[in-house]
Design brief:
Keywords: Coiled coil. Residues 37-67 form a coiled coil. By secondary structure, this protein is mostly helical. The chain has a domain at 7-68. It has helices spanning 7-29, 34-67, 75-86.
């Protein structure tokens, strides 16, 4: 007996194949897909490196601020900053440009 698939069965299978293809595409390329996840992980790594660099800079600036504070005064740092910012020199120094 030679049975043929009805039109509704063919349409059903075609829709299921298209639906499967859509979900496969969405799993790879969609906003929550695999490629987006890899991209977000790379961005997260880059931002973590930037955060670490900025934290190092903040720590350095915090140290300099503490060394120039009223509670702890580093005379050498104060002398260096005064020379740099104000252009001061001692009487016994020679400036070479």
């Amino acid at each position: 007996m030679n049975q043929r698939l009805s039109i509704s069965a063919i349409v059903f299978f075609a829709l299921m194949i298209l639906l499967g293809l859509y979900f496969a595409y969405a799993a790879v390329q969609g906003p929550s897909g695999i490629l987006r996840r890899v991209q977000l992980q790379a961005e997260t790594q880059e931002l973590a490196q930037q955060r670490d660099m900025l934290q190092t800079e903040v720590d350095r600036m915090r140290n300099l601020t503490r060394r120039l504070s009223d509670d702890y005064l580093d005379i050498d740092l104060l002398d260096e900053r005064a020379r740099n910012v104000l252009g001061l020199v001692r009487a016994d120094e020679i400036i070479i440009r």
